[in-house]
Amino acid sequence: MSYAPDGSLEKVERQEADCRDLAKRLGWTISEPYVFQDNSRSAWQRTRKRPGWDALLAAVEAGDVDSIIVYHGDRLMRQPYDLEKLISAADMKSIRIASVSGTRDLDSPDDRFILRIEVAQACRESDNTSRRVRRGLEVRAGRGLTQFGGNRPFGYGVQTGTRTRTDPATGEIATVPVYDTTQVVSEEAAVLAGAVERLLTGQSKAGVVRWMNECSRTTEGNAWTGKTLDGLLMSPRISGQIERGGRLQPAAWDGIITPEQWEGVKALYRRNAEKYRYPGRERRYLLSGVAECWNCQGTMRVRPQSGKNRRTPGLFYYCHACRKCARDVLRTDAYVVGRVLGVLNAPGFLGEVLDHDGQPELGAEIVALEERRKTLVEQIEDAADDPDVDPVLAMRALSSYDRKIADLRQTLAATSDRRRLARMVGMTLREWGEQPLDIRAGTVKTLFRVVILPATWRGRGFDPACVDMRRKLLSGGVAEAEADVDEGRQAEV
Questions:
Q1: Which of 373, 408, 443 is at the close of a domain?
Q2: Residues 333 and 287 sit within 8 Å (Cβ to Cβ)
Q3: 334 and 477 co-located in one domain
Q4: Do 170 and 60 sit in the same domain of this protein?
């Protein structure tokens, strides 16, 4: 289904049953891991994500399937671009497509010709439907109305009747109310107006949310949160306006607050955003989220700890999951840094990194491919006026560019850690301390798997045996426990 607003799967299940019946008649065997559904996702809109379609293309490219069964061709493709991608992926693999209307062979030029005509016709039908829908929405917007659908907005919606609806989970038919969302609900409008007044007079948003939860709930019956309040207050609906073409115009309903009050609320939000900027979750400790607990394999976090004989509170890496592991931050960091610097300064380590560093010209190659792809896209757009450009071949070439660029980017991402290691090779302790903390933590995580073990003694000092650091291989995986640990360097740390 292209549109299933209530999440219904009934029609999709019927389509799948018909496809399975067709497979029996044709004598084709269905592989269950390769049954894909993209319910309520348009095959016409290019911006819509279709995980099932992407998985199908990947299976075809990998040679995992040799035939495709679909309820109807327009359920699979409504864009010539998608058909060319499928043809490119199935090129010379004898892929057959079957539906109730018949079977096509992608290796056959005649079948490809017919498929292109059918997909072009389906695309035109979708274009016509889209044009009519947009025109209808423009007419409604001209009358001060919004589009259909969605939940009842808070503050608006007087019940005018009921309608029946099928529950997608149980299949039961239920009666649901129908609302006129141009009518103001006086009780909810009073709550909303009070919230705006409280905000403009200086009460905090958290205080307003607490007050609203004491006297009301959302239209779905949920408690108010800061996020739901933000969405409600930033909508022009509550001021009796709608947005059309980037400009505000009067709506077909009365506002709960005045447009001036609404502008005041927006100005308040802007001032608060500038005054209280969110700095992000900046890393503060080297092994926080990197070191693992020996007992539950959870990641360690930092917490303060004090005791009777401790003059100043200390910081410990602590497992908040099982609460069975803790280790001093400063001493653990010092030991781990010593081990890391020992590897970065080891003879032959730079050669090990460069041997696995991949191709250094990957970035330049991706940039060149992107430029050539951009030129090809411009040629496709002008294909109607240029008789020398074959649009079919151009679309196949575009698909090849996309596939090549994706492969190169994946390779480039895999070598990013190695490039960072190459930059860190040979660093001294002072140079290490000058690097950003997230770079240092990433280096530790790339080189070692750090596991905090139970302590083997009590009292002062640091026990190196309580930290298990297993060297990670640059080709993937973790090496066995190192036999050439530098005991003198451990004692020095």
A1: 408
A2: yes
A3: yes
A4: no
Residue 192 in domain: yes
User: Smallest Cα–Cα separation from 398: which of 78, 84, 62, 53?
Assistant: 84
* Domain identity same for 226 and 184: yes
Domain total in the chain: 4
Cβ partners under 8 Å of residue 101, min gap 6: 72, 73
Same domain? 252 vs 347? no
Q: What angle do CA 349, 350, 356 make, to 5 degrees?
A: 95
Q: How far is CA 105 from CA 43, 57, 108, 312, 323, in A?
A: 21, 16, 5, 77, 62
Sign of CA dihedral 138, 144, 148, 154: positive
> Which strands sit side by side in the sheet containing 448-452, from one edge to the other?
292-293, 448-452, 467-471
Residue in the block written with tokens 């610097």: 341
List pLDDT tens digits, range 475-485: 555 554 343 44
In tens, the pLDDT along 183-230 reads 889 999 999 999 998 888 767 788 889 899 999 999 888 999 988 999
Expressed as residue numbers, the domain containing 228 is 156-275
**231 & 166 share domain:** yes
Residue 388 lies in a domain: yes
Give Cβ neighbours of residue 467 (< 8 Å, ≥ 6 apart).
327, 332, 335, 336, 450, 451, 452, 453
Residue keyed to tokens 């939940």 = 151
Minimal CA–CA distance to 57: which of 15, 18, 106, 24? Answer: 106
**Nearest alpha carbon to residue 480 among 442, 454, 449:** 449
Angstrom distance (rounded) from CA 233 to CA 195: 9
Q: What 3-state DSSP class applies to 323?
A: coil
SS3 readout for 213-256: HHHCCCCCCCCCCHHHHHHHHCCHHHHCEEEECCEEEECCCCCC
The C-alpha atoms of residue 307 and residue 316 are separated, in whole angstroms, by 13
Whole-model pTM over 0.70 = no
